[in-house]
Amino acid sequence: GDKVQMRQPPKGTLPRGYTPYPYASDPVAAEKQVNPLAGQTADEIMALGKKKYEIYCMVCHGGDGLGATPVAEKMAVKPRNLINAEAKA
User: Fold this and answer.
1) What share of the chain is helix, strand, coil (3-state, %, to 5)?
2) pTM of the model
3) pLDDT in tens, 43-70
């Protein structure tokens, strides 16, 4: 084995189909983004949201959204409670 799979890609290159995050150096603009699905409650959208939450969010925020999970206990910055009024706003 020549360990080809362990080689680092050339500096400055991007994977095919990759779109860089446009707000990496502009946090003010990032804060002004609007959720294009906000307020939509169609079954398909709700199912997609549930699926994404279970994959990316639930491990830290928990199934109840309170942010009290075994993973959260070990985090220096605790995940926010997604049920309170501030988070909902």
Assistant:
1) 40, 0, 60
2) 0.61
3) 999 999 999 999 999 999 999 999 999 9
Burial class (CB in 10 A: 0-12, 13-18, 19+), 24: exposed
- Which residue spans within 1-89 are E strands per DSSP? none
Looking at the predicted structure, is the pLDDT value of residue 89 above 80?
no
pLDDT for 2-28, tens place per residue? 666 778 888 888 888 988 888 889 989
Which two tokens mark 54? Answer: 């279970």
Residue 6 structure tokens: 């362990």
Handedness of CA 24, 28, 34, 35 (dihedral sign): positive
Cα–Cα–Cα angle for 20, 14, 26, nearest 5°? 25
| Tokens encoding 32 | 């002004």
